[in-house]
Amino acid sequence: MTSVAEPRHEGESAKASQPPDEMEALLRRQLELLGEDPVRDGLLRTPHRVAVSLRWLTRGYGMDVKKVVNGAVFKAKHENMVMVRDIEVYSLCEHHMLPFYGRAHVAYVPDGRIIGLSKLARVVEIFARRLQVQERLTDQIADAVQEVLTPAGVGVVLECQHLCMMMRGVEKQNSRTISSALRGSFRDDPRTRDEFLRLALK
Ligand code: ZN
Predict the structure, then answer these.
(1) Helices 46-57 and 22-33: crossing angle, nearest 10°?
(2) How many angstroms does the Cα of residue 187 sit away from the middle of ligand 1?
(3) Mean pLDDT per 10-residue run, the chain (202 residues)?
(4) 105 CA from centroid of ligand 1 (Å)
(5) What are phi and psi of 20, to 5 degrees?
(6) What pLDDT was estimated at residue 1?
(7) Are residues 90 and 117 in the same domain?
(8) Residue 168 alpha carbon to ligand 1 centre in Å
(9) For residue 61, what are the β-bridge partners?
């Protein structure tokens, strides 16, 4: 049977013709341990695809918040809450290496500086694209915004569904996990906190 060219996925083409690496050898062995035949047609290039995919899904390790945000912090007198809702989150739980996914709502109250709104989504991406637990991811997003912007306060809410709960173990298919991280005025000022949580959890 002649093999047909496989559709390329984003980021997959660059290393396609390189010799197999250690990660691919491990994945080939993993297929064997699962009782599969790693040289059958459909699985032949699976170790390569999975290795490329895993590196992409964990590419946040190679990203730096300050570099990503660089040039997108502006002086401004705005003093009201700025919020970006419904930022898509895709991450991998560090306990099972299975996806968890959902939405992030990120808000801050400026103190002389504002940030390009798309950069808040980039900050989420930097920390989501690693092996994570949702609680730490939430904290890291809040701390990063606090650090690059030194605003009066930061609030982050994540609502995620975890495949490790949905497709194995307890099989709680519709449960969502909600986590929050509050810094500065979001933690200390009840009115700011209430406004944020009302907007985030609606
Ligand atoms: Zn898990």
Answers:
(1) 120
(2) 29
(3) 45 49 96 98 96 96 93 90 97 97 98 95 97 98 96 98 86 84 97 95 85
(4) 22
(5) -60, 140
(6) 41
(7) yes
(8) 10
(9) none
On the CB side of 8, CA atoms within 13 Å amount to: 8
Is 91 in the same domain as 163? Answer: yes
Q: 111 C-alpha to center of ligand 1: Å?
A: 38
* CA atoms of 15 and 5, how far apart (whole Å): 15
The pTM for the full model equals 0.87
CATH of the domain at 138: 3.30.1130.10
Q: Which amino acid is at 163?
A: L
- Catalytic annotation, residues: 93-96, 134, 162, 164
Which residues are found with C-beta within 5 Å of the ion, ligand 1? Answer: 93, 95-96, 164
Residue with token string 């930097």: 126
